[in-house]
Amino acid sequence: MKLQKILSRFQKLHKREIHLSLDRIKALCQKLGSPEDKMRVISVVGTNAKFSTVAGMFSILKEANIKCNVYTSPHILKINERFVFNNEELSDDELAKLFEEVEEINGNQSATVFEILTASFLYKAAQYPDNICLVESGLFHRFDGTNVFKNNLASVVCAISRDHIDWLPENDRTVERIVFEKTSSLLNSNIIVAKQRDKETMECIKKTISKNQSNKYFFNEDFSFTNEENGYWHYEDKFGGLKLQTPNVLGQFQLENISTAIATLRTLELGISDNHIKKGITKIKSVARLQEIKSGKLKDLVKNNRIIVDGSHNEHGAQVLNEYLETLDCNKHIICSMMSNKDHEKFISYFKTISSLTVTEMTAQPNAIKGKDLLKKFKNIPNVQYKESIKEAIKSLSLNKNDVVVITGSLYLASEVLKLN
Question: In 124-196, at which residue ranges do the beta strands (DSSP E only) sit?
Fold first, then answer.
């Protein structure tokens, strides 16, 4: 309750939820003693896979007994998830104390909620100058509140695709502009570029960062992976090859994300051994990213069938989710709800062989599209229906043995699902 009261006060500091600018966050950081200059940072930018790549690095670093501070967004179940220091989430009391201290220093000056949360993380992280800080960028990067560092260890560029384009000028909503927003202001250190969805995107990234003097490492040129049989896969870079056990997270795309994590940590030569990598990738904590629900209230509704929640919310996310679903030899039942500003038809078009589609509501998100409006957009899809709630959607399904239920369309939806469960 105390945290909620503080967050309510934060919401009153600026009339807009998002206001892309660095002026306020830089002014606040100066008041806080420039904490951003006292950190060892790995910055992670991109459209998709940022959280998964951070999770992979975090798991490997923990296996190597290297202390980390981790900043990600959005949170899924509770805001504490965004505030990890010395490898542990802050408790409610610790987080409230941190917020109150930053709030007092800020002195009621204008700041968006994301900016003051980011400043709070930086302020606390500066207390652990020897830790590795894994910092996920928010919306784009150029004017994002996380773009305040003068130096970092590395910048990781995850998969870039079309998303949040409503924040761009109507005549310039292109992948080229998105790439520019995310990569044109990367620092001069090391840049590790993950696998991109197509050659054009990769070439656009290369062109945008061509004048950046960083050491650059590109997927398929400087590091890569291949699948092997019997539960193993092979990673390769300039330091040599690794035969690795299949990680504890679902989906082929996770091998891409883990490869990027490995490439980053090996490039930085942090004392990570092969054994740390081999063990670390089997202990990754990945919430709402192809997460199978194995117990709880919603699991009880599907009994012996599998239920998976995935926060994919744009076309690239839909693409990689569908690639995973295509590997399953069973009927797939999709339950979907999305935010209003997404390309709904494009998102759903990637799911080619689903048995049913049920649209529903996100009750906690005022900016979500209404389920019946989403139904109209999906009216040409066979076996599509509308149900008022997630529970009703699950109950309505006629499930046969081995069928799988997949709930997707938004990280906010994933949050509601996990809380219900």
Answer: 132-136, 154-157, 190-193
Quick one: DSSP state of residue 38? G
Give the tens place of pLDDT for each residue, 122-175. 999 999 999 999 999 988 899 999 999 999 999 999 999 876 677 677 787 888
Q: 377: burial class by Cβ within 10 Å (0-12, 13-18, 19+)? A: middle
The CATH code for residues 2-280 is: 3.40.1190.10
Task: Give the domain ranges of the chain.
Answer: 2-280, 291-420
CA distance 302 to 91: 34
What is the CATH number that goes with domain 291-420? Answer: 3.90.190.20
Q: Among positive and negative, which fits the CA dihedral 358, 364, 365, 369?
A: positive
Peptide bond into 74 cis (omega under 30): yes
pLDDT at site 252: 87
CA distance 20 to 149: 16
Residue in this structure with the two tokens 């909503």, named with its chain if needed? 173
Taking 70 as the threshold, does the pLDDT of residue 23 lie above it?
A: yes
Residue count (the chain):
421
Cα atoms in the Cβ-side hemisphere of radius 13 Å centred on 420: 21
Beta-strand ranges (E) seen in 348-412 are 356-359, 384-386, 404-408
Tokens of 192: 């590790």
Tracing tokens 């002026």 back to the chain, one arrives at 23
Sheet bearing 190-193, strands edge to edge: 88-89, 84-85, 68-71, 132-136, 40-45, 154-157, 190-193, 215-218
Element (H, E) at 306: strand 306-310
How does strand 232-237 pair with strand 223-227? Answer: antiparallel
Distance CA 133, CA 155 (A): 12
Residue 178 has which token pair? 């998105």
The identity of residue 254, as a single letter, is Q
